[in-house]
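[job 0412] stage=complex_fold ligand=zinc ion status=START
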Amino acid sequence: MHDTASGRLVPTETGGPAHLYVCGITPYDAAHLGHANTYLAFDTLVRCWVDARVSVEYTQNTTDVDDPLLERAAARGVDWRELAAEQTELFRRDMAALGILPPDHFVAVTEVIGPIAEAVARLLDDGVAYRLGDDVYFDTAAAERLSPWRLGEESGLSRGRMLELAAERGGDPDRPGKRDPLDPLLWRGPRPGEPSWDTVVGAGRPGWHVECSVIAERTLGVPLTVQGGASDLVFPHHEFGAAHTAALTGGPLARVYCHAGLVAYRGEKMSKSLGNLVFVRELIDAGHGPAAVRLALLAHAYREDWEWTSADLERAEKRLSRWRSAARASGRTPDQDGAHLPRLLETVRARLADDLDTPGAVAAVDARIAAGSPLGPVELDAIDALLGVRLAD
Ligand code: 5CA
Ligand code: ZN
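[job 0412] stage=complex_fold status=DONE, emitting structure tokens
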């Protein structure tokens, strides 16, 4: 897999179990194709590991208390907890429809407020955090002195670029009183009308990055084999997640940081805040099969940034119907050569093992079907198990 920190392709099979953490949703709106693309990429990784007989443990969080969620709940006149619970359930249903295997641990931030507060209290005690009013910030410079983490080790970005991204993605570089404009919020003190918990660091609620550090360590232990998400999380989220974990444990958050590309629509990154969304559910309700939606996404390399158009879905539907007719024609014919694994299985394995080359794997199936001889049961199983597309009943 491509590792953002080193910029290289690195093995993700280490001989032991694989521990995967993928940053989960902020549950205030339905799952869009960008989400689906990211979770499908890591679903493909899980399928490759399982195929290689690696035992896998997989965690996703949900950021179920955060500004956009609170704003949406207020706008809809519903309780924020209700909105989060409802959208989390819809997300699980949509992912299941796409054949995306659920994580082993699915942890909401509100389930771990106490442990997060304890972690923040430890960072304060250790001198890598400071109070500003009722809030607590992570002290970037102190962490560089006192822990093995170095700013930029995950993202590799310049300081200028970090400042821009921090401002765009939930940071507050312009807030007066911070020791470094990049210092991220660890704990947000109570504000009128906002949810707040009484904890060892005082009242309030967790900052964003620390939630993932704490949930990763509690559910899987660190270092994770892979920390995943889309590339919008490279900075500040995964940079400071790594920083918090290094300050708390003395070691790295993950061996490999993998980032999926961003799916755009109508010229811009699909995002809940911009509102340029294509929802998974909308396509399924309009009668498009979930397998076709899945194939439309698999036709793009997971690290690519690309723009969704209806042509993606049309191509996938045509492809799926070609694959399905080939599967119907195949009946129960044994694989070509009983002594060897079918070539198609080996090619699909090899393509996916090469940084999840799903377009290459899909092309291999196309070529195999174009060759015309009936598909054997092992080939059908390979397409089902590795690409998650079931062709026969
Ligand atoms: N709750 C945080 C992570 S801790 C969060 O980013 N939530 S989210 O709902 O905004 O995004 C959920 C996941 O989908 C993240 O991994 C994010 O990187 C990914 N994602 C968001 N928008 C897109 C997009 N347009 N294309 C691809 N992936 C996306
Ligand atoms: Zn996260």
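The pocket of zinc ion (ligand 2) is lined by residues 23, 61, 212, 237 (CB under 6 Å).
[job 0412] exit 0
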